[in-house]
Amino acid sequence: MTLLEEEALKLTELQTLEGHTDRVWGLAWNPATGADGVPAVLASCSGDKTVRIWQQRSPSSTSFDCKAVLEERHTRTVRSCAWSPSGKQLATASFDATTAIWEENGSEFECVSTLEGHENEVKSVSWNASGSLLATCSRDKCVWIWEVLPGNEFDCVSVLQGHTQDVKMVQWHPTVDVLFSCSYDNTIKVWAEDGDSDDWRCVQTLGESNSGHSSTVWALSFNGTGDKMVTCSDDLTIKVWGVDIASLQSGFVNASWRHLCTMSGYHDRTIFSVHWSREGIIATGAADDAIRLFGESEHHSVDGPSYKLLLKKEKAHAMDINSVQWSPVGNGLLASASDDGTIKIWKLESVP
Amino acid sequence: SSFELSALTDAYKERPARSRPGDGDFDEYATELIDQLEVFDILQANFLSTFLHHIRDIKDPEHPYSLEELKVITEDAVEVDDKRSYVRVTFTPTVEHCSMATVIGLCLRVKLMRSLPSRFKVDIRVAPGTHATEDAVNKQLNDKERVAAALENPNLVDMVDECLTPSYE
Questions:
Q1: Shortest Cα distance, chain B CAs vs residue A22, angstroms
Q2: H helices of chain A, where?
């Protein structure tokens, strides 16, 4: 989305989705829906131990209905969820130390596999771009990489140790098989497969000494081309990092990520979620109940790109916002999840 | 679940209206206002006495503890900004044992979660300079994911509930 100076943005609430009976932690748009006449599908997970599947009433509708409730599988909070790239499977990570894999079978969702191995709470789950690998992370300070095999088998191929505290989130790079994790230990770690030994190792640690965060890093997200990453933290800042994407895509997985800029002074309480839209807009969800949108400023500094606050939606929810997620199809739809137990669907529009 | 959102707000609604010295004719308005005294009262009402009763058991039984002597929290240590829906409680651990400070802080947080309207943001911290691992304790107490996970641990919830149960001796 190219923003002209005189254009203003408007974030309009389309719907509040109610049904969860405890705080909503995570959201995931099904990437195979929302375009080509297929109604959009959104999954949400909660402290009420369930996952809810919400479906757009019709491809042009602004209303979503709860289509399914995935329950009686997880025995504790479901902290995060992620659709496989094909949209056929949903992975759910729970405080019960397991990760479940769900498939839609007719009108029902059934659990087709359970991944066990973490010692305690699993906090995040992520599929790689091709859907052949899955990563999970936990309070046990470890990141596990699982290989997806035929017949809903998942083989642990590596247990990555390096973080000194619980790992809050894992996220694969959108085009290259390089994994990112962020932690309560204030760092972001980059993991890649060693071509010689076939094993995974930490290729870079982004910490306070290289312009990184000074408190828990809660989330990270990539821009559309994968040459930039944004991270958000309890230190009340968001940071943008960049890489030489040509080098990374040519197979040089050690390509160094460097700090490009820090946006401070915008947030008053912990930033729990950050998500970069395909159109280049960064959304944040924070403990101050507000949603903020940032865009790249036309006025670059000598050090690289700079970003400006485009919009702040105060009191977007009645309580903390735990997740903000842009629809992957570029229709300007944003979903937010909150401690208030609701999910909201927003539409971003530019008004001349 | 102790985390039910409705339970938090209901607990607040059900608390009986009371008057405070000097409220006079403005009583009905006064009960709407959450001020420093009220938050202190919430904590004071049953938490402190029972909590102190409990930690007495794990300390030197010869030591004559009293509420005044322990001063885990005082009225001055509770900062309230009702307009901004913000509360900060600064407590002074009585024992240097790290896990005990975390339990005290967790009890304070749960007590406030159950008693205050959900619009309130709560920060809990140990008084500066009163604990060896002050930063670590503060970070843990204010990480809501860790707090949420802790409160799904039945043993920990039992302990917190026990601390928060009024004693009738």
A1: 6
A2: 245-249
